[in-house]
Amino acid sequence: MCGIVGVVGKPARDIILKGLTNLEYRGYDSAGIYLNDLKGHEYLTKAVGRIKDLKNKMTPDEQGLVGIGHTRWATHGKPTVANAHPQFDETHRFYLVHNGVIENYTQLREKYLKGVDFKSETDTEVAVQLISKIARDKKVDGFTAFKEALKLIKGSYAFLLIDNTKPDHVYIAKNKSPMRLGLGKGFNIIASDAVSVLDQTKTFVDLNDGDVGDITKDNYTIETIDGKKVTRKPYVLHMDANAASKGGYEFYMLKEIDEQPAVMRRLSQDYLDEDGEPTVDPKIVNAISKADHLYIFAAGTSYHAGLVGKALFENFANIPTEVGYASEAGYHFPMMSKHPFFIFLTQSGETADSRVVLQQAIKRHIPSLTMTNVEGSTLSREADYTMLLNAGPEIAVASTKAYTAQIA
Ligand code: GLU
């Protein structure tokens, strides 16, 4: 799952290319961009390799006031130009970028799309062909066809769709893949990670799983797949746009290692008073002290921070603590004590495996706390309590400052 950036209402090319470049650190194998100038010209360029390879393929006249871009980490089909996104339908009307995996793409293809001329091996093309087929067969507009298709699609997705018969709209949908809407004056932006577009706006709207939206330059509407309108409140994301740049360092990892003292200072300001006494939200302290057993769930580096947490909780608080890999607990939910309390450690707040465990905890009414670096992230919104690490964006894949912040 890689990166997505969409823009409506502003020269889109550079914003998209820069946003995708900001997401490069996540790794990807190919990239693509669709632009529409709203005067009848549209441009689609895709390349295997880096964003700079994509740029090299674009001519200066490829500009647009609406556009969608994508970096792909192939799950279905090799990294080729044909498999790169945006994917389009056989009538060249719909253009779609997608982060995620469509689980029932074979069934959809067999049931609804016999005889369609597929150009790629991707699950994503099945989605865009399906939208187009529904629009033609049922003679409905693109947004309605999109929602009808979403009712049939199973899996994870952050989708941005352009219907070139109504090119001043970007249609969006989210399920289990991150996506945020950024609001500007006379333009709007959609991105898989807010950090990638912080130089354009700091006002964001978080989308929930199952949300579908119609975004124009001055407006946005969000509804459920069944058409029930929902309101999601905009908020200002307190993050410095430069925080995600290398700031003179050769590598992000070196910069992030050096940032650790500053992160520790910030954390002590946030969680200790002048006398050095903890100022953690009493509700969290109260909930934890009621527990007879703590369960820490995490993945990767956070799991190791969890092991340190176990030693600290058992030594200082005398509460037996278990640490589990979220990826395992999703399949085998551990046997629980009478009064368990769950702690999720997740840098991004979007770790899919941890989220599966959190969903089960919610069903069983087990109280939970997410410790994350990203305000407003999915796990933060869904757990009962959140503690923010405030370590700033961590770009290097080997975690350093987020790990030390979790331990602190
Ligand atoms: N499943 C899609 C593909 O393989 C999207 C992969 C991604 O999230 O980048 O094309």
Task: Note down, in words, how this protein is organized.
The chain is of the alpha+beta class. The protein has two domains: 3-242, 4-Layer Sandwich (Glutamine Phosphoribosylpyrophosphate, subunit 1, domain 1); 248-407, 3-Layer(aba) Sandwich (Rossmann fold), CATH 3.40.50. Helix content is 30%, strand content 26%. It is built from 13 helices and 20 strands. The protein has an eight-stranded antiparallel β-sheet with strand order 3-2-4-1-10-9-11-15, with helices on one face. A seven-stranded antiparallel β-sheet has the order 5-6-7-8-12-13-14. The protein has a five-stranded parallel β-sheet with strand order 17-16-18-19-20, with helices on both faces. The longest helix is centred in the C-terminal third of the chain and has 17 residues, at 301-317. The chain is globular, with a radius of gyration of 22 Å. The relative contact order is 0.10.
Task: Give the key terms.
408 residues, alpha+beta, Glutamine Phosphoribosylpyrophosphate, subunit 1, domain 1, Rossmann fold, eight-stranded antiparallel beta sheet, seven-stranded antiparallel beta sheet, 13 helices, 26% strand, binds glutamic acid
